[in-house]
């Protein structure tokens, strides 16, 4: 038998990105949520949204923020920085899981693929977004991840090692994560209906429904900014990218 024809690429107009940025950022120990802290002269969240603004794989964006920050984000994030792909800014919920669900519901009927990306991962690159969208269109559900490079221990409440899993089968999960819209909406519906507890990511919701989730290789620089140390690393990486861009080298793009 010959090779199966490759599925045509999905039109970007049928792809939406949900960007949850409704966290309080308590580990940053600052007076502002981490997504609004300055990074290279702009709010951290602007860096994240700009990558999606420039992506040729995404048609529109739904931004999820704290309820009290909705008006601020519309004026000082979306309008001020010309982020025309941000179609809606919606208030989040008590948990990340709730915030993503509210963002997903705001996309109902308007897209075939939904990509979810943490608002505080500002160093994502466009090619990773494209690979996530293509992967979800082809396979249904994909997540960006990296192989574990250190030994992982399972430890009990007293600090005693209980188990050492095989590192070869362990991956460090990132976002973006991309799904067929119908699957992700059904997963969130069931989570509410059946009272599922907090899920650490959206892929876990689909796994619980029995939907296979595939891994695509993520990026080492695609860090999640949750602490002051992370913010400093992000500054250094952005500075390096800017220097590379000024020299015309493709440092800012992934090399997978």
Account of the protein in words:
This protein is an alpha/beta fold. It has a single domain (12-144, 172-246), classed as Alpha-Beta Complex (Spore Coat Polysaccharide Biosynthesis Protein SpsA, Chain A). The protein is built from 7 helices and 11 strands. The strands form 3 sheets. A 7-stranded mixed beta sheet has the order 5-4-1-6-10-7-11, with helices on both faces. The protein has a two-stranded antiparallel ribbon with strand order 2-3. Helix 3 packs across helix 5 and helix 5 (181-194) crosses helix 6. The longest helix is centred in the C-terminal third of the chain and has 19 residues, at 228-246. The chain is globular. It starts with 14 loop residues before the first strand and ends in a 10-residue tail after the last helix.
């Amino acid at each position: 038998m010959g090779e199966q024809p490759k599925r045509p690429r999905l039109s970007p107009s049928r792809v939406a990105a949900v960007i949850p940025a409704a966290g309080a950022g308590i580990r940053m120990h600052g007076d502002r949520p981490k997504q609004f802290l300055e990074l290279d002269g702009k709010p951290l969240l602007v860096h994240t949204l700009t990558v999606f603004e420039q992506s040729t794989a995404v048609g529109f964006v739904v931004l999820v923020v704290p309820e009290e920050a909705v008006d601020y984000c519309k004026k000082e994030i979306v309008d001020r920085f010309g982020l025309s792909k941000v179609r809606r800014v919606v208030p989040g919920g008590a948990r990340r899981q709730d915030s993503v669900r509210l963002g997903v519901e705001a996309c109902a009927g308007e897209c075939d693929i939904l990509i979810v990306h943490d608002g505080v991962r500002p160093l994502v690159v466009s090619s990773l977004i494209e690979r996530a969208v293509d992967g979800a269109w082809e396979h249904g559900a994909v997540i960006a991840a990296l192989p574990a490079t250190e030994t992982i221990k399972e430890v009990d409440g007293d600090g005693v090692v209980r188990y050492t899993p095989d590192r070869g089968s362990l991956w460090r999960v990132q976002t973006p994560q991309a799904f067929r819209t119908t699957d992700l909406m059904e997963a969130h519906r069931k989570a509410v209906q059946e009272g599922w507890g907090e899920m650490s990511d959206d892929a876990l919701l689909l796994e619980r429904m029995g939907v296979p989730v595939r891994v695509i290789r993520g990026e080492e620089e695609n860090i999640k900014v949750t602490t002051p140390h992370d913010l400093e690393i992000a500054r250094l990486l952005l500075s390096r990218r800017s220097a590379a861009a000024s020299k015309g080298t493709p440092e800012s793009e992934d090399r997978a």
